[in-house]
UniProtKB/TrEMBL annotation:
Residues 8-63 form the HTH deoR-type domain. Keywords: Transcription, Transcription regulation. This is DeoR/GlpR family transcriptional regulator of sugar metabolism. Coiled coil: none annotated. Pfam families: HTH_DeoR. It comes from the Bacteria. SUPFAM superfamilies: Winged helix' DNA-binding domain.
């Protein structure tokens, strides 16, 4: 795995944990927390949503799903 992929996966994991710990959060809040652009956060959220780990019941607001997750 190259360094860029590793950094992205680390950030995706951190985004998931942040949402899990803070409840429903906005895309902008995540971008500010992680020092990235809204577009970068949106790509990370797309990965999490594709895997059924987060959902956006209200546009731009994200929460975790009840899908069990093993974090290593």
């Amino acid at each position: 795995m190259n360094q860029t992929t590793s950094r992205m996966l680390t950030r995706v994991k951190a985004v998931y944990l942040y949402i899990r710990d803070n409840g429903t959060v906005s895309t902008t809040e995540l971008a500010e927390e992680f020092g990235t652009t809204d577009r970068t956060v949106q790509r990370d959220l797309n990965v999490l949503e594709y895997n059924g780990l987060v959902s956006s019941p209200n546009r731009g607001r994200w929460k975790t799903t009840s899908k069990p997750v093993k974090i290593s």
